[in-house]
Amino acid sequence: MSGAALGLEIVFVFFLALFLLHRYGDFKKQHRLVIIATLLAWYLCFLIVFILPLDVSTTIYNRCKLAVNSSPAESNGSYVTLAPSKQKCFKPWSYIPDGIMPIFWRVVYWTSQFLTWILLPFMQSYARSGGFSITGKIKTALIENAIYYGTYLLIFGAFLIYVAVNPNFNLQWNQLQTIGIAAANTWGLFLLVLLLGYGLVEIPRSHWNGAKRGYLLMKTYFKAAKLMTEKADAEENLEDIMEEVRKVSESIKYNHPLRKCVDTILKKCPTEYQERMGRNMDDYEDFDERQNTYPSEKSLAKLHKQVIYSVQRHRRTQVQWQILLEQAFYLEDVAKNESSATRQFVHTFHSQEPENKIIQYFYTPTVEWYWECLLRPWFYRVLAVVLAMFSVIVVWSECTFFSTKPVLSLFAVFIQLAEKTYNYIYIEMACFLTIFFLSICVYSTVFRIRVFNYYYLASHHQTDAYSLLFSGMLFCRLTPPLCLNFLGLTHMDATISHKNTQPTAYTSIMGSMRVLSFIADGFYIYYPMLVVILCIATYFSLGTRCLNLLGFQQFMGDSEMTSDLIDEGKELIRREKRKRQRQEEGENRRREWKERYGNRDDSTRSRAVHTDQKESSFSETNANRPLSKYTRSNGRTERDRIELLQDAEPLDFNADSVSDDPLESDSGR
């Protein structure tokens, strides 16, 4: 099993990152480099979280071996026995051989740092640029990132000057590397505590509120009212942008040098707008530089950028509106079925997507009623209580992990108790649950926050390239300080435990923070205590109340504006529900008409087709008969010729009499 656990987790984490990226990104429409860069950033961050428990168990086994080698011992198979105490050091099932983990952490860490500080910021500007060529996009990205890179170079230079001026330091490459790592981790820890304080309270509370059907339904109505406003604004913005595109398309003709840029912009427009603009174009007209003023390439690049943004926003709001409608209809169905006597879940509307037959077989209407109306609320309540207990343990440990005698951090107590018995499975499970819960609190906040329309992770493939790359940057900056904070909570970091023991491979890559004592002994220890204040502020919804006062509508039960938006959203959902009911009634009537009169129409149609076939066959038979069979007498032939002549000549209405038979009138002739 040596190294097998590492290989299995590497493969599992890759598919996990791929699944999440597929949920938020769009593999078909977005650029491949954007998908690859975001996938690599997410994959490396998730990999650190999953592999770190294996590093902890391997480090504990290596410490045991060092303790054994420093005392009289006897070797016995796969473990070592101490002579005086007969202590056994079992090799963990997930043991990773020496030399693999340092190389692994070095590759993963520096790759993630290269992504977050150099590549991803550049790709953000490149993806959002409105340039029409690769060179133009690269130039725009370099100009936009000049201030960005200059700011971080200034911060790094400040740390470098501090170390160089201090006479206690001998500036070496390892120390210079540690300064860079300390600067990056300090920035990450500052943001980490803010996100962690929000997630520790909001995640248990959201699961507790998930058990309240009335709460979820009211919040859905509130979201519907806000989303309808955003949807209308997106449609209006798209109309304005398309009007500008139409004017530009009509002014720049087919033989203008910038016509290729206009065609590129038109390809990004929705199909209905492309068809409308194509009908109104007069490409036969030549352009005249002396008579008309044409937009520059820079203004076209700006228009191209606006088109990409407006089309993406319009498509996202449309999809989100449909998803929100389905969610609202389902919650209303749950509220209706709670009082059902048959205990079978009845849907108002049938699902538009085909359901899996296996799910239909096991997830019957009866099972669905018991889960949605009876079991699910209690499950969410129990889960909320468990998550709240974890949050309390994390807050307590964040405030006391610097204390080594006595050990007050509960996570450190759990690990040290398991270390005495060398129960590696328990150690790995405890470490995994701890860091997994911390990661959920931090990463879920990254997925939930929204900075206007600048950064927003929308599910169902509606996230733009800029937000995907920005999330990759945040993950790469938050994960290293998150892991260091976890090692501090469990006292596996020698800087916190103040023990001269073998460090983990991950800590050895980070270097000794003693180079910057004010960070190692000050900021890293006391700043995480701020999580208590942030948890209290989140519990009383101080941030939500401040945003509400500033004019940003937030869901608050005691707000009059919230009540108005709930009523508005309820009316919108009722209107959409009536509209869908009328559509389904119309489809049912058409289906019944086809079932009732479909056979009769088919038989009538078949008889008509059969008659046409008989007539066509009869005409073909007449055409193929020999002419000898149709030989007539001379009198009959003469009569036919006279009839043709009479039809060709006009009638003379001045004649005294008009005979009905033309042969009789021409008898004298």
From TrEMBL:
The keyword Lyase is annotated on this UniProt entry: no
InterPro entries (alphabetical): GPCR-associated_LMBR1 (IPR051584), LMBR1-like_membr_prot (IPR006876)
Stretches of the chain forming a coiled coil according to its record: 224-251
Amino acid composition bias (Basic and acidic residues), ranges on this chain: 582-617, 635-644
Pfam families the UniProt entry points to: LMBR1
Spans annotated as Disordered: 576-669
Stretches that traverse the bilayer: 6-21, 33-52, 103-126, 146-165, 177-201, 378-396, 425-446, 466-489, 523-542
GO cellular component: membrane
GO terms under biological process: adrenergic receptor signaling pathway
Membrane disposition: Multi-pass membrane protein
Acidic residues bias: start-end ranges: 658-669
Domain of life: Eukaryota
Composition bias type Polar residues, residue spans: 618-634
Main localization (coarse): membrane
Location in the cell: Membrane
Keywords carried by this UniProt record: Coiled coil, Membrane, Transmembrane, Transmembrane helix
Protein family per UniProt: Belongs to the LIMR family.
Protein name: LMBD2 protein
